[in-house]
């Protein structure tokens, strides 16, 4: 167990519950509700060690590149795909995700786009739909993180010890022909359904 996994388990538990699928080396996009800066670490730490090497969290460059400790965690420990959230004429925030998927990596993403201190996810942004239409053979696994918004809400630097769980659901059915709103609602509903388990 690496130091970051040990510390995560000590502070917040991060106990995995595989309810609709089992751990698998299949290429996947794990998508979850987003309530805390710890979300990324908690999902990654809840995966079996053999999978962590090939599962890359997607994180905001402007946050995770600030400071030596954050950068070391993001790049050296988690092997994050860092994205620039500002779309410009010459760059698209999804390009680094596309490249990681082409290389065969799995991803952890937060389709809401920003943290919200609430138990249920807000409407999803369209990025996850674009990835689904371009990479239809990737499995899309809904994940619900329970209680983490209480452990490290916005503005808090040191987590409050608590127990959180990470629930992995069944792969969301999808087709490249799915209409954007239909897929986004189906994906969000799958995360909400896990909140009731």
UniProtKB/TrEMBL annotation:
Residues in the signal sequence: none
CDD domains (alphabetical): LPLAT_AGPAT-like
SUPFAM superfamilies membership: Glycerol-3-phosphate (1)-acyltransferase
InterPro entries referenced in this protein's UniProt entry, alphabetically: Plipid/glycerol_acylTrfase (IPR002123)
GO molecular function: 1-acylglycerol-3-phosphate O-acyltransferase activity
Domain Phospholipid/glycerol acyltransferase: 28-148
One matching Pfam family: Acyltransferase
Keyword Kinase: no
SMART domains named among the record's database cross-references: PlsC
Pathway field: Lipid metabolism
Name recorded for this polypeptide: 1-acyl-sn-glycerol-3-phosphate acyltransferase
């Amino acid at each position: 167990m690496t130091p970051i996994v040990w510390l995560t388990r000590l502070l917040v538990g991060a106990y995995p519950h595989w309810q609709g699928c089992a751990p698998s080396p299949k290429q996947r996009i794990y998508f979850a509700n987003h309530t805390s800066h710890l979300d990324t670490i908690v999902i990654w730490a809840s995966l079996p060690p053999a999978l962590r090497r090939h599962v890359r969290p997607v994180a905001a460059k402007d946050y995770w590149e600030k400071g030596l400790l954050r950068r070391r965690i993001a790049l050296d420990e988690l092997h994050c795909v860092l994205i620039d959230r500002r779309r410009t004429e010459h760059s698209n925030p999804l390009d680094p995700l596309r490249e990681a998927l082409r290389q065969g990596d799995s991803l952890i993403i937060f389709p809401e786009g920003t943290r919200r201190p609430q138990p249920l996810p807000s409407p999803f942004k369209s990025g996850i739909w674009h990835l689904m239409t371009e990479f239809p053979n990737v499995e899309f696994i809904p994940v619900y993180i329970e209680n983490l918004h209480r452990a490290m809400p916005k503005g808090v630097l040191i987590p409050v010890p608590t127990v959180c769980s990470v629930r992995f659901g069944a792969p969301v059915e999808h087709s490249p022909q799915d209409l954007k709103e239909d897929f986004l609602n189906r994906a969000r509903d799958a995360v909400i359904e896990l909140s009731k388990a």
